[in-house]
Specification:
Blueprint lengths: L1 H22 L34 E7 L3 H17 L1 E4 L2 E4 L6 E5 L1 H12 L3 H10 L3 H9 L5 H4 L6 H14 L14 E8 L4 E4 L2 H6 L9 H8 L9 E4 L12 H5 L10 H12 L8 E6 L1 H4 L4 H12 L1 H6 L7 E8 L17 H45 L12 E8 L6 H8 L9 H16 L2 H9 L11
Parallel strand pairs: 1-4, 1-9, 4-5, 9-10
Antiparallel strand pairs: 2-3, 5-6, 5-8, 7-8
């Protein structure tokens, strides 16, 4: 009997050792180096063709926040409303959705951004069943507990996020890479993750991949979505090899003015910080890897890149010219904020909250506060641009009373907010504010989020003004 038990235990030990040995074979996808960075090629903002029929005087940006399926469904509802809204085009009526130039996506919002960039209108017949109304979270847990996946998960070259990436590829992205969406007539999707070592944002565009001397075109969309939604501790970081400093990378034009020590205007502080973050990737000898986690850690609204770009436009005349700002009449930023604030009830009890609850809340509070700060910063830039224009015109009129005021372009800003806090009915607001951050929601909640997104857009005075400015009819107001 002892011999039988000994042989059984030996076999179990051998099986465990075999699993560990097999785990050494599992590895993450390798990103390849590039020989030379070329700012005129690859998936980036300035190489993407303007969408057919787009108004070059209007830039329309959608910013999709994080928040799991809640964020994915809420942002999808905004796309649906824009699809229903008609405006005037050069060849007749067109959809406001077709005017969207860029979509920034973070965490849950990144799935909607990337999926629309890949599928275009096909998304509206498939996204619900393929992703929104699927128990993504349950499927991922099942795969993590499947013994067949344990050897891979034990490998230091693999992790839960790589398993998630393969799953997302299977159910949604079908092997597509950024090269596959390079020439599609859809908005440019800018998906953000966080470099966990420094806390800086990292986008899946060739601009940021130039920093690590690699090709974003070969990166799967599923891996970008996995990195952008890799919640720390719940999912593992998504790792890329850093080859920075080995491809003759050149800084963009705005950097020269931002780092000028004689510059008196310090309104470009975020752009200066961005430059320092960019420089940190150039030391690939001491930083051979980049570990990416949930984009919400550094930018839960997907607005930070927009803010930095506006500061870079302010800082550099060359950059303004390159971006075509002198022809710009409207800058529209639709901020789709899926922030929920569940009622904890802590303030109604004498006993303090437990350690785990406090840890979860402590991780989310700074992100939520930073999101609110970004919205206020965008409003500050709007005001500053208006003041700068007024001051410039006043100066020119003193020099020459006949100065043509119309020669200085007036850029109208439309910072449109779509968030739960704008829901007028207290009961409805409480319902959405208490939805969990997870990758599974009941179908009724998914449909409710989609419907509420459209309702909030139609209730926005700025949105109604934009539609009328673009030659459309004001959407009918909801009476309920």
């Amino acid at each position: 009997m002892r011999e039988i038990r000994f042989l059984a235990s030996t076999r179990i030990l051998a099986a465990c050792l075999a699993a560990l040995l097999l785990s050494a074979c599992a590895s993450r996808p390798a990103n390849e180096p590039i020989e030379k960075a070329d700012s005129h090629s690859g998936y980036r903002l300035n190489t993407r063709s303007l969408r057919p029929g787009n108004d070059p005087a209007t830039i329309l940006i959608l910013a999709f926040s994080g928040g799991g399926t809640r964020a994915a469904a809420f942002s999808y509802g905004v796309l649906e409303e824009l699809r229903r809204t008609e405006i005037a085009g050069p060849e007749g009526a067109k959809r406001l959705l077709d005017e969207v130039d860029f979509i920034t996506g973070v965490s849950g919002g990144s799935f909607t951004a990337l999926s629309y960039a890949l599928y275009g209108d096909k998304l509206f017949s498939e996204y619900e069943q393929r992703f929104l109304k699927r128990d993504v979270q349950g499927d991922l847990v099942s795969r993590a507990f499947n013994p067949g996946n344990w050897p891979d998960l034990l490998s230091p070259e693999y992790g839960r996020s790589e398993l998630a990436s393969e799953y997302y590829d299977e159910i949604l992205f079908n092997g597509a890479t950024f090269a596959d969406i390079m020439n599609k007539p859809t908005p440019t999707a800018v998906v953000t993750a966080t470099n966990i070592s420094t806390g800086s944002r990292f986008t899946f565009t060739q601009d940021d991949f130039d920093l690590i001397c690699s090709d974003v075109g070969k990166v799967k969309l599923s891996r970008a979505a996995a990195a952008s939604s890799a919640v720390p501790m719940v999912l593992s970081p998504v790792t890329f090899k850093n080859y920075g400093g080995n491809c003759a990378y050149r800084n963009p034009d705005w950097v020269r003015l931002v780092i000028d020590p004689t510059r008196k205007d310090r309104s470009v502080g975020r752009a200066l910080q961005r430059y320092r973050e960019m420089q940190s990737f150039q030391d690939s000898t001491n930083r051979p890897f980049v570990h990416l986690v949930d984009g919400g850690v550094s930018d839960n609204l997907g607005l930070r890149g927009v803010l930095e770009d506006l500061e870079e436009i302010e800082a550099s005349k060359e950059y303004r010219k390159a971006q075509g700002v002198r022809f710009l009449k409207r800058l529209v930023v639709v901020m789709v904020n899926s922030l929920s604030v569940p009622d904890t009830g802590w303030d109604r009890a004498s006993a303090p909250p437990g350690g785990i609850s406090m840890m979860i809340k402590a991780a989310g509070v700074p992100i939520d506060r930073y999101s609110s700060e970004q919205i206020e910063l965008l409003k500050d830039i709007v005001r500053r641009w208006g003041q700068n224009r007024a001051g410039y015109i006043q100066k020119k009129l003193k020099q020459d009373p006949a100065f043509d005021v119309e020669s200085v372009p007036l850029v109208e800003f439309y910072p449109i907010q779509v968030s739960f806090e704008n829901i007028p009915d207290e009961t409805e607001r409480s319902r959405f504010m208490n939805l969990p951050t997870s990758f599974v929601l009941p179908p009724d909640d998914v449909d409710g989020l989609r419907s509420m997104a459209g309702k909030l857009l139609r209730q926005s005075p700025l949105y109604l003004k934009l539609v009328q400015e673009l030659g459309g009819d004001a959407p009918e107001q909801d009476t309920k």
